[in-house]
Amino acid sequence: MFSVNFGSLTTGISLFWASPMLVKLRNGTDTPLSRPITEEEGSWIVSGGYLAAVASRIDEAIDVLSKVRESDEIIKQELEDYRSSKQIKVNKIELIRDRTFLKSLSLGVLVCAGANMIGYSAISFYLQTIFESTNTSVAPEIASLVIGFIQLFAALCTTFFTKFFGRRTILIYSLLGMFVGMFGLGIFFTFSTKEGYVITGFLNYLPIISMILCTYNFNVGIGCLLLVVTAELFDGTARAFGYSICLTSSLFLAFLTSKYFVEFTLALGPPATYWFFSAMCLVVCTLIAVFLPETKGKTFNEIQVSLGRQRLENEPGPSQRPEC
Fold it and tell me: Domain Major facilitator superfamily (MFS) profile, which positions (predicted)?
């Protein structure tokens, strides 16, 4: 059975990512969440077929691709095209000199690094400690349990939102929701840290409401889509190189914000810390709204054209449209 962890909880079934996946037991048994594969989810299955092909598990790759391709001839041609593309040598120096690649790289770093500059990694790692520091009547254990279920609920919602809304739209509203949540935490600690102040009324529930907003909006938007959007920004030959740089920046900033969150809070104080994170939400949201092109429903070539490339080589494979 799938091992699933959401928040501080561990259960028998888990959604690792808010991606359009089928939830089944490992032996293939359907669960209440199982459903037929939709056309938009085909690209995720195709990715699985490619991964199997890379590992030279050709039979498994054919089995996976047969779920979304019409004939064996198309499958064999697609795998052959993919093998051919792997023989192309990528000149990294030429890529760094390419203005379109640099623009894709800048946008990828914006999305990946921005997802960790807004502070969610820090507050998720220190969730229990933050709730204990609020000194409200809401038990930290109960609050952590609620946050865990919110993460799972957000993962389920993402599947439907990506079907009806564009990537950029989801990212923008996700960051605006994060801004409200972080700002709420800043307001709470501004009042609660005053000497002799008694936490009562709405302020008693403001921390958990703010954390719910942060958790839901991060996991329903940028937390899920950052890897998808980043991969779509690069063309075939540059994707591995650019994607690795973006992912490295994301992990590095996640480490920094988590490692030094306590020192940052002690130096600036809790209110200023959360207001800084809320300000970063607005900065990243504004940059995404202004500079990031919409990638849903476009081929990789069309995305590259929107980034300024004039002439593009055709990518291998009969289907390039990232519609999931």
Answer: 1-296
